[in-house]
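Service request form, structural biology core

Requester: graduate student, group of Dr. S.
Request type: structure prediction, single chain
Budget code: on file
Notes: please return the result as structure tokens.

Sequence provided:
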Amino acid sequence: MDFMSGFTAAKQAYDLLKLIKESHDQAIISGAIGDLHGKITELQMLNAKLSGLYQSERDVAVKLREEKAKIEMFTVKAENYELHTTEGGSTVYRSKKPTGSTIPHHHLCTHCYSNSVISILQPGISTTKSAGYFVHYCPQCKNEYRMGKLPPVKPVSVRFPY
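Core staff response, request fulfilled:
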């Protein structure tokens, strides 16, 4: 459907109305009324299509506004994080610690962060250590990150009583 077909149908309906008004012959008036009914139906169909297009465009606009709000919210939150390389060599996002804050640093998954998702790394459940480092995982994407070094283990000596 384009604008010109609707405009053409409206112009034809107007011309039929003029013909009905100016004509004195009943046969011409009856034919014009029949044609006018057809044009009115055509205009109603075009109006319904236009209404559907308008609604779909409104839906797109609402989705775009929601996406924009999500991006803006993420941008505000993202300002509180910086790239950090852990002792284990993993690159994560770490919270910037405001002065005077007693809240400890926390770390975010870089994969999720790149997808505008803030996912705080958690201590590993199935893998708690790897190559001498504690392992944290992302609950969102399940990536694992080597974090801090394991404390040295003191050797245990066992004495047998004989």
